[in-house]
Task: structure prediction
Amino acid sequence: MNEKVYFIKMTDNQDDAVIYQKVEQIIKEKDLLSFIKAKDMVAVKTHFGEVNTKGYVRPQFFKALGNLLKAKNALPFLTETSTLYRGTRSNAVDHMQHAYAHGFTFENTGLPIIMADGLLGDEEIEVEIPGKHYKKVAIASLFGRIQAAVMVSHFTGHVLTGFGAALKNMGMGCSSRKGKLIQHSTAQPAIKIKVCTGCGECIQWCPANAISMVDDKSRIDSKKCIGCGECLAVCRFDAVVYNWGATYDDVQQKVVEHAMGVAAACKGKILYINFLNRITKDCDCMQNKYEKIVPDVGVLVSFDPVAIDAASIDLVEQKLGGKLSKVAFNVPSRGQIDHARKLGFGNPDYELIDVG
Ligand code: SF4
Ligand code: SF4
Result:
């Protein structure tokens, strides 16, 4: 049976407030929070956006969503995890201050922020899964304590996974530091010495201190490199190259297996909401110049992370009239969906229900 995915269409650059109101209305009309019980602790997982990014879902939406959850007498809160790379989101204190600076204050959302992986990103639980790469995965400990979750994801291109949406938000975004590290562990970049300008940007972003400057050119220590791909994404001069053929499959599969762990920890009590607007080549972790690569598509809502992501990439490519890889990174976009299908995780076959 095909999995239902509700589709709220939007016109390009449509006002956020109008869209948020429509999503709220559909959640109410379709009774999509009926799985929430009184006193349930409900984690609302999202991405607060890196410095200078503009694509993330705005705080106003979370106020409306939080009110719907509170109407169920639940105890909702916003949650996130620390990043691997250095910057404003690599520990709980910096990350929360960053979230407040982006407007995710209690005043604006009515929701407290509770970091899922603790002060330093190392509070984790191990969850058993029937994966190809793993039999157990390390995810943020909070997901083992809650009764339900709502995954609010912003669709973007991605340097390793082709695109990032619900599976990526869950697999990478809900993992502990150890879980994130292990997902990145197979990709290995190299520097094109003739092209490198020695600007040093990659050194600033490398989470593993694997890059140094030698004779005004960056150099990667392959023993320290964890394959996170940050250097590739931040280099404006295309001086970083990857052997994609050997890596993207693995990363995409590992993301899916960590998402499986999160779904198992939450006992499947998760509602997924994907925003397909302000779509950029890079994910919301990157500080690169904001540049929209696809006209806005709409918002999807489903109980299945694989169905919603399959519908998301289909709708984005329909809007583009071609492959996402033509305007984003040259990385296949179906690896996450295909691996989920092989593992029997979720359902990539969906029924799109146009709700206007
Ligand atoms: S960001 Fe690119 S150009 Fe700058 S130092 Fe690193 S590899 Fe070289
Ligand atoms: S992929 Fe690049 S940024 Fe990431 S650890 Fe390796 S050298 Fe550092």
Remarks:
- The radius of gyration is 19 Å.
- The chain has a mean pLDDT of 92.
